[in-house]
Each structure stands twice: as C-alpha cells, then as structure tokens.
Amino acid sequence: MTIRKRRKAPPEPVAGNGLLDRRALLGRGIVFAGATTTGVGTLLTGAAADPLKNDPWSLEMGSVVPAYQVPSRFEKDVIRTRSNPNNEFRNSHARTPHHLLQGTVTPNGLFFSISHSGLPDIDPAQHKLVIHGLVKQPLVYTVESLSRYPMVTRMHFLECSGNSAPMFSNEPVQATAQALHGLCSNAEWTGVLLSTLLEETGIDPKAKWLLAEGADSLALHRSVPVKKALDDAMIALYQNGERVQPGNGYPMRLLLPGYQGNMNVKHVRRIKLIDQPAMSFFESKTYSQILPNGKMWLFHFLQEVKSFITHPSFGHSLNGPGYYEISGIAYSGNGRISKVMVSADGGKSWAQAALQAPVLPKAFTRFRMPWRWDGQPAVLQSRAWDESGEVQPLRADFVAARGQTSKPVTNPLAFPNQHYNSITSWGVDSSGGIKHVYA
Amino acid sequence: MFTRKSPFALLLAVAFGAGTACAETPGLGKPINEADITAWNIDVLPDGTGLPPGSGAATQGAAIYSQKCAMCHGENGVNPAAGILPLVGPSKFDRIDTMKTVPYYKYATTLFDVIRRSMPYQMPKTLTNDELYALSAYILSLNKIIGENDVMDTKTLPQVKMPNRDNFIIWAPDKI
C-alpha cells in the first residue's frame, strides 16, 4: 500500500461548485482553515470568540442518573413525525428524522414504524410461533425456547416500499428528508436464523413459498419465497441490543434483509409453508405497483440501491460561505454499497464520496464529501452503486420507466406509488436556504 | 441448560440438500397437530384452499355491510371515513396513482381472506362463514364483478374472474 504524502495546501475542488477531494477527510493532514487559495473566508477568520465563563451547570450537582436514559431536553425536536397524531381509528406511521441524525444506526426510539391496527400489547410469556403447512413436523416455539438457540447479530436497514413516495410527484414536494425518506431506518438485529428452525420442521419439496402472519388484530400476512427464507431470513428478538420495540414487532419479527418492510412481519406468530403465494391483501394491492404502460408489478420485494443527502438538506440553512461536510446515507437490498458519487451542480459534474467503514451488506452506509461553498446557488445530489453493479437511476430515467403523477402531490403523507429509489436534489440558494428541487 | 428436551424434533430434521451443512440444532420446538392450529389457520389461497364451508349472496351481505362495515367504508362502499379507502373504485388502472380498491385484486379470494382475518376493524375474526361469503358477494357485486344473486361458496368464489387479473407481471421471477 502506498502512503500518500500529505498535501500542505488546502484541497482543490474535484468537481463543480466546490466539491473537494474525499481524501481530505482521511487522516489529519489537511488544513481547511486559515489562508485559503480561493480567498473564501472560513470560520476561523471571523470575529474572535467571547471570553469563557462558568455556566450554572458547572457550579452545582446535576440530576441523578435515571434507570432508562432519554436524550437531553434540548433535543426535544429530534423525534419521529406521526401521521395519526390525534389517535384516530386507523393506521399510523412514524418517520425517522434523518436530517437530525448522524452515523448509520437508528436509535430504537426513532426507528420508523407503521402500524395498520395499532400496537398489540403482547405478553412475551404467552407469545407463540408455529411453523406448519408443508413441513415434516409442525413445531411451536416460544420466546423462551428461541432464547436458547444459536443467534446471529447483523446490521440491516428496513425500508417501507412506500418510502419516498412523494417523490413520484410531478413537482417537488417541499419537505424534509424525514418527511420524504423517513420510512427507512437501520439497526443491529439479533435473532435466530429461520433456516435453523426450518431444519427442525423439515420442508416438503412442494413448498415454494411461506406465509408469515402476525399476532396483531389484522393478522397481517405476507408470502415469502422459500428461497429467501433459507438465504438470510431471521426471527429477530433484539434490536440494537434490547428487545425489539413494540412498534417494530415485539416480541419477535421476521427479518428479511433487503426486502420491503411490510414483508418483515411483526409480532410473527405463524409461518406456513405453502405451494403458491397466498396473494394476501398487502401483496395483492398496496405493495403492487402500477406502471405507466398499464401493467402492474407483483412481488417487487427488493429494496433497490438508493441514497440521499441528509446534511445539508431541506430544513437546514447554510450559515455563510465556507467549509461544510455533505453527508448522507446509501443502502441496497442487493448487498454492500460500492460507491457513492456526489454532485453540487445538479449532476453536471460528480466526485466520489468517502464511505464510512464498515460498509456492511443490506445496511446503511454513511457517505461524506468535503465541500467549500462559495455562496452561489448549488444543487446537491448523491448517487449510489452497489456491489451487484446496480446503480441508482437518474430521475429522468426513473420517471420514464416508472412515471410520475399528472398533478402535484400536496400531501407528503400520500403514497402515489411505491419503490422510489431515484435521486434526491437539494437546491441551495445564495442566502443559504435549501429547497427540494428536481434537477 | 444444553440438555435436549425434545429429541423427537431432531429426528425429524432434514437436510436441505447435498452440500448443506446440517449442524445440530437445539430441538426445542414443541410438536403440534394441524388440528390444534385451526384457530390460527385461517388463510385462503387463490385456488380456494382454506375456504371454509358456507355460502352467501349480495342480497344477504347488504344488511351485514350496513351494520358492520358502512361506518368506516361508507354506504355502498363509497364515501368512506377519513383515512380509509372506499371498497368500490375504478377497474381500469391507467395512471400510476390510480386508486386501488377491490377491482385491483388479482383474485377474489384476497377479499374473503382479508375480511376473515382483519375485519370488522374493531372486532376482527367475529364474522360467521356465511357472513364472510355474503359480504364478499356484496362487495364484488357493488363493483359489478358478479351479479346481485350470485351465490359465493367454496366452488364459486375462486372462479370469479377479476377484471384486472391479466394485467400483472412478476417483477423478477428469478428471485422467487
């Protein structure tokens, strides 16, 4: 491996509108502050800081640590947005505030959740999981018995295939990354591989699908190819180290890495091996997509390669020209992210972003790109590639293939279609304001 | 802690094929008979597998619908409550955001199944089999997919030809 010599001078732009070499983020050798060759001011050339003093919290004892800690009261706005805040008798959604988070792990309290009939109050001592149908021997498992099984721990994203649905609007909906893309999150899941349990029940060769059903009042069910079940499906018991949250499937959920969220059946209580897809309500209607050619897709299970910039994005503003870090998340149901390109000029020129290690399969990958904003209008975009060679489609290509609405979408909670994985563009104006644009 | 309570399950374990390592598993699943799964085993498949005995027609379904369904889904399947989709809608899907209701389904069994497992929303799994057939018939008839006097039962329901049936394509057959 060649050791690069540190450059003494500040990095030069590698693409239009001030994108800098991603290698500037590695190591400690690059001086962003101080004299720049472009003469653009940076924070350290501004007015001097005020003299330091002791604040009240430095002069008295604080509160005693609680049993279960929650974020600082100053973080009260870092919460999920709810689609049903008045507790009406219908479904409810809560979206992850991507524009207020960093890294790749979604805290459990902020993990997105969709419930079609409220959160069931399940006693884990009473919960059972039965596997039956085209098996040699139907078997019943409990939380306690599964707790004695060999477990695996894996980082995976979950995404509702209705995530980013407002992006089907023919005009850009002015909304945050939370409102547009908040129906996806990423966690470390621990549980028992479904293949381990199917090894115990045995599988009749006639079984091509399995039906997974929840213990919720709808008994929500989905059909899953046996091929996927034997690949990497998991009965997840833990989410980021603690028991799976009620809104995410307590006390156990089916986890199908890279497959659309709804298939990852929560509160799973029944798995039935069958010889045909069940054509459940959700796979027949909600999660089938109408194409512009008048045909409809069935079984579009995979969440395809996608990325979006979270910082800066709608809801932020830039505080004057100078250095900023552009960052966002990329993920693919196919496997690992292999590359993310970033543009600051609406796609005219691109530069490769740094990927934060570890880059894990079917998991969020944080990308970062150093940027020196010159104060002029800019359009920020990201585009991801995955290890299978799939690339995030450009918007024009995506719209040509999948269509867009004929009238603007006025409600960001609407789901005009499913499986949007094209580019998100943030337009920065000369005052530092940020809008959602199409470019 | 690592003693095996149920060697029976282990005996029944099968390998998935040549080359697949079959590691020893704990064998803690409790055997159960299909008969003892009946209360949960409520799915109905497109070919009619799982349909219970019983029958009903639209004329019977209308009264049940008014009493148990209309408060959310609207009288005659239109004008539903806020946030709830109607049950009567277009049968032609020429825009990507066309409202998808019952005529969208590929199979009529989907309708019977979702009523059976999920409805009425406030007291699911309480309808009798005859009520399920009658409601299915009524909703199909509201959409002019079957006639008002057509009786739905284990034979006729899977044979209903849904208007959108032939318009579906499988996204990636190789992944299934």
Your description of this structure?
The complex is a heterodimer of chains A (439) and B (176). With 439 residues, chain A is mostly beta strands. Among the domains of chain A are: 128-287, Oxidoreductase, molybdopterin-binding domain (Sulfite Oxidase, Chain A, domain 2), CATH 3.90.420; 306-437, Immunoglobulin-like. In chain A, 8% of the residues lie in helices and 29% in strands. Chain A has helices at residues 143-146, 177-181, 194-201, 226-231, 281-286, 395-402; strands spanning 13-15, 19-20, 81-82, 92-95, 113-115, 128-133, 139-142, 152-159, 184-193, 209-214, 221-225, 234-239, 242-243, 253-255, 268-274, 289-290, 296-298, 306-311, 322-331, 337-343, 351-352, 354-355, 365-373, 378-386, 425-428, 434-437. In chain A, the strands form seven sheets. A five-stranded mixed beta sheet of chain A has the order 7-6-15-10-11. In chain A, strands 8, 9, 12, 13 and 14 form a five-stranded antiparallel beta sheet that branches. A five-stranded antiparallel beta sheet of chain A has the order 21-20-24-25-26, with no helix packed on it. In chain A, a hairpin with a 7-residue loop joins strand 20 (337-343) and strand 21 (351-352). Chain A is globular. In chain B, strands 2-3 form a two-stranded antiparallel ribbon. In chain B, helix 2 packs across helix 5 and helix 4 (109-118) crosses helix 5. The chains are: A mainly beta (439), B mainly alpha (176). The interface between A and B is large, with 75 and 66 residues. Strand 7 (139-142) of chain A pairs antiparallel with strand 1 (30-31) of chain B, so a sheet runs across the interface.
Write a short abstract of this structure.
The complex is a heterodimer of chains A (439) and B (176). In chain A, 8% of the residues lie in helices and 29% in strands.
Rg of chain A, Å, rounded: 24 Å
Shape designation of chain B: globular
> What share of the residues of chain A lie within helices?
under 10%
State the CATH architecture of the largest domain in chain B: Orthogonal Bundle
Q: Pair with the most extensive interface?
A: A-B, 75 and 66 residues
Biggest beta sheet summary of chain A: 5 strands, mixed
Going by helix content, strand content and strand pairing, the class of chain A is mainly beta
The low-confidence runs of chain A, each spanning 5 or more residues with pLDDT under 50, are 33-43
CATH T-level fold name of the largest domain in chain B: Cytochrome Bc1 Complex, Chain D, domain 2
Largest sheet of chain B: 2 strands, antiparallel
Overall mean confidence score, pLDDT of chain B: 89
Output the CATH homologous superfamily of the largest domain in chain B. Cytochrome c-like domain
Distance, first to last CA of chain B: 39 Å
